[in-house]
Design goal:
Elements (H helix, E strand, L loop, with lengths): L2 H9 L3 E5 L1 H9 L6 E6 L6 H16 L5 E5 H6 L7 H22 L8 E4 H7 L3 H9 L4 H6 L14 H16 L4 E5 L3 H9 L10 E2 L2 E2 L3 E5 L16 H4 L16 H9 L12 H10 L8 E3 L9 E3 L2 H9 L5 H24 L1 H13 L5
Parallel strand pairs: 2-3, 2-5, 3-4, 5-8
Antiparallel strand pairs: 1-8, 6-7, 9-10
């Protein structure tokens, strides 16, 4: 695979931004092994934003020859008071349900789960003896303003009642990039501020500098698209992504990997889908994810009676979006088509969760977790 093919895999949907494409191309051109990481809070049941969108990107990078790592951020989740702030529960969920479910998803999406490194954040801290010294050294060199602006990574807004732990968290996330030797730091677009800061301070990371080919470099930042909440109203602030994205703590906003066909159908039927509106339309977003990320072998069908135009065929997402924006596709017809495709796409997941290891993990989760924002 040549360099441009690798770059194109990195840029493939659901990628929304790469900072910078030129650096990424240059890093591939060295021929050295590139390392990636994405970190996840352990905060409840996994929805398709984590389990499909993020894992699709992990699989893309695997195909591009990148060594991929998933950080199970137990300490970060604890600082952010996830799962009731119970560190023991967080760790147990991380190494059982969370890890095994992501492994399963990577396999379903065509990747190699055995080639992915899963690392518990607390183990990373233990293995990297200079970790906390690097966190403190970084704290000496960045401003309070820098850190406050990065709190969107936690779904938090800084006020006078903010916990001190919220200020430690972004420092840890920046150091994670370097402690893992990450050439490609990957996250959702809501992580942009902290990862841009991580890139800007590359020359301040003295205890664990990032190198490639014997020289110190900046990490490339890869940001993927966030799926909008199914329960949007159209009034959400564009500046507050936590209001507008799928959320584990609000089940009506998201499709979970374990959802049954009936639950998927009901959620899509009730989803926000205004006529002619294509921006932040969650049903169109689901069509793009489930039906148009890969080249289609058969057309996407909008099934209608002949008096309403008859069945329409689509081979490209852009064609569907164009017709929807012009009112040629009714929201209910779109929903019915997406339900059919979503149920088919998600079948391997709910089957896994219905029996065997998947069912056992889901049952354990039900007895363990108290999901918190």
């Amino acid at each position: 695979m040549d360099v441009e093919d690798k770059v194109n895999l990195a840029l493939k949907y659901p990628t929304e931004e790469v900072i910078t494409i030129e650096d990424l191309r240059n890093y591939f051109e060295t021929g050295d092994q590139l390392k990636h990481y994405i970190g996840f809070e352990i905060s409840g049941y996994i929805h398709i934003g984590t389990g499909v969108v993020s894992m699709y990107k992990v699989v893309d990078l695997q195909r591009a020859g990148v060594k991929v790592t998933i950080l199970l951020a137990d300490l970060h989740s604890w600082l952010n008071h996830k799962l009731g702030g119970d560190l023991e529960v967080i760790r147990r969920v991380a190494v059982t349900y969370f890890k095994e479910t992501l492994r399963r998803s990577i396999g379903i999406l065509g990747g190699d789960p055995d080639a992915v490194d899963f690392i518990l954040a607390s183990q990373l801290v233990e293995d990297k003896h200079d970790y906390w010294v690097q966190v403190l050294d970084l704290a000496r060199q960045v401003s309070l303003s820098d850190i406050r602006h990065s709190l969107t990574i936690m779904g938090r807004v800084f006020t006078n009642t903010a916990k001190m732990s919220w200020l430690i968290y972004p420092l840890m996330q920046i150091v994670d990039v370097y402690a893992l030797g990450t050439h490609i730091a990957h996250g959702g677009v809501d992580q942009r501020k902290v990862y841009v800061l991580a890139r800007e301070v590359h020359d301040k990371i003295k205890l664990m500098p990032l190198t490639l080919g014997g020289r110190v470099i900046k990490p490339v930042i890869l940001l993927h698209h966030l799926l909008p909440s199914l329960a949007m109203t159209g009034k959400e602030s564009r500046l507050d992504l936590s209001e507008a994205k799928m959320s584990k703590s609000r089940p009506e906003t998201a499709i979970f990997l374990h959802d049954s066909p009936g639950e998927i159908s009901e959620k899509i039927k009730n989803a926000y889908c205004p006529p002619k509106v294509t921006e932040n339309n969650p049903v169109l977003e689901l069509a793009r994810l489930f039906s148009f990320r890969e080249p289609r072998r058969e057309p996407f069908l909008i099934k209608r009676p002949s008096e309403y135009g008859g069945t329409a065929e689509y081979w490209a997402f852009e064609e569907l979006t164009r017709d929807y924006s012009q009112g040629k596709v009714h929201p209910l017809d779109l929903k019915n088509a997406v339900i059919e495709e979503a149920v088919r796409f998600m079948e391997p997941y709910w089957k896994w969760f219905s029996t065997g290891d998947g069912a056992r993990l889901l049952s354990e989760m039900g007895s363990l977790v108290k999901i918190t924002r």
